[in-house]
Design brief:
This protein is of the alpha/beta class and 399 residues long. It has 11 helices and 14 strands. The longest helix has 28 residues.
């Protein structure tokens, strides 16, 4: 902090923002479509306990994308004390206006390609359609701005994965994928225990993403219609890659169909019939991971996982093993003005992590290697499912 006056002003502003947070969140909740996973996490009175500002600097952020899921405003960048949302964009004027209102921002652009030219902007949150993620992130990096992106990192293309990796590597800028499982309470706790040595080598792990919808969620140019399940794998694969920071090395996968109309031959742009895919990965540790994405199971929903190591195992946030003194498995404190949000209260933690990575000039969780290692395994797994479960090699990324 530069001086005591600025610190007092900063904390006073936080207090005012916290008082209004409940009203803002209530209004936002009324406007949100009812989509599985977006349910707001219960308020945690201790979420801001021990939080301390690391700086009084505000990162000038641009946000692009306000489709059916309304991701652009869902992660609370506009509520963060170290953020000034200076511009927003969406291809549809009505959505662009709604995003500007939700983020309390006056400046709008008709496209990301126009917004990246704004020299005021330091970082951009890409919340556009999944097929555009890699292209949009590369465009942001080309214009010298940090970037964070909704999942997945790339859409069904190993070529795009390598292009994105090189773009991040050569730019020297921050890249982060907003993978919600990484900041769910269980997966985050597993990561802390693993990093402290509480599991040893992981022998077996599981990640599961259940997202039933017999009727398609709306999407730009219908990219969601009949989409390949494990092209959207990261809510599951985070339960290995996000825990260990290690990649998968090979995979065998099978698929099945729940018979939905949009998952029939010729009914979608992917010519895909699988509503459900289950992959069995070999890991860099020599262990095994079972990862799935299922849309056809009606009574199950959400993201969950389990890890089993040489010295202990964990489900939810309960550790069973040989480690006597566990590390702190609680998620980091949030600024008082930032709510936890949806997907198990992960939204606020993700936006906070990205902003802190810039302020502290460090690699964020989830960085480019983690993002691609979570994503490309699913792409290769989907190919395996078309080859009767043939075991295929998975590209690996490291930083």
């Amino acid at each position: 902090m530069k001086n005591s006056t600025s610190r007092r002003s900063f904390l006073h502003a936080l207090g005012m923002g916290a008082a209004a947070l409940g009203l803002k969140n209530a209004a936002a909740a009324e406007e949100k479509p009812k989509i599985q996973g977006f349910e707001e996490a219960p308020a945690d009175p201790d979420a801001a306990k021990n939080w301390k500002p690391v700086s009084d600097r505000k990162i000038r952020v641009g946000i692009v994308g306000y489709g059916t899921c309304r991701f652009g405003a869902a992660f609370g960048f506009h509520d963060h004390p170290n953020v000034d949302v200076v511009a927003v964009s969406d291809l549809f004027p009505d959505r662009c206006a709604a995003l500007a209102k939700a983020c309390r921002c006056e400046k709008t652009y008709p496209s990301l390609e126009e917004m990246v030219k704004d020299d005021r902007i330091e970082a951009i949150f890409v919340a556009t359609d999944a097929p555009s993620h890699a292209r949009h992130c590369i465009e942001v990096l080309k214009h010298g701005k940090h970037v964070t992106c909704a999942v997945p990192a790339v859409w069904g293309s190993l070529e795009d994965a390598h292009k994105l990796f090189e773009a991040v590597k050569t730019s020297g800028l921050k890249y982060m994928m907003m993978e919600t499982s990484c900041f769910r309470a269980d997966c985050y706790a597993m990561r802390q225990v693993y990093q402290a040595g509480g599991f040893g080598k992981l022998i077996y792990s599981e990640g599961e993403y259940y997202h039933f919808h017999s009727q398609q969620i709306g999407s730009y140019k219908d990219w969601r219609v009949g989409c390949i399940p494990l092209w959207y794998p990261t809510h599951s694969t985070a339960y290995y890659v996000g825990v260990t920071d290690k990649p998968f090395t090979s995979v065998s996968c099978t698929g099945s169909s729940a018979g939905f109309p949009s998952y029939r031959p010729g009914a979608n742009a992917y010519n895909n019939v699988f509503t459900d895919q289950i992959a069995l990965f070999e890991t860099a540790e020599g262990g095994t991971s079972r990862m799935l994405m299922c849309k056809g199971i009606r009574e199950k929903g959400g993201e969950t996982g389990r890890v089993f190591g040489e010295q202990g195992w964990m489900e939810d946030t309960e550790y069973r093993g040989s480690m006597k003194k566990l590390p702190d498995i609680r998620r980091p404190p949030l600024p008082p003005t930032v709510g936890p949000g949806g997907h198990g209260g992960s939204h606020g933690h993700l936006s906070n992590e990205f902003i802190l990575s810039i302020l502290e000039d460090r690699t964020p969780l989830v960085n480019i290697a983690q993002a691609l290692n979570m994503t490309v395994g699913g792409i290769v797994a989907a190919e395996s499912a078309l080859k009767d479960g043939e075991r295929l090699q998975v590209p690996q990324f490291g930083v």
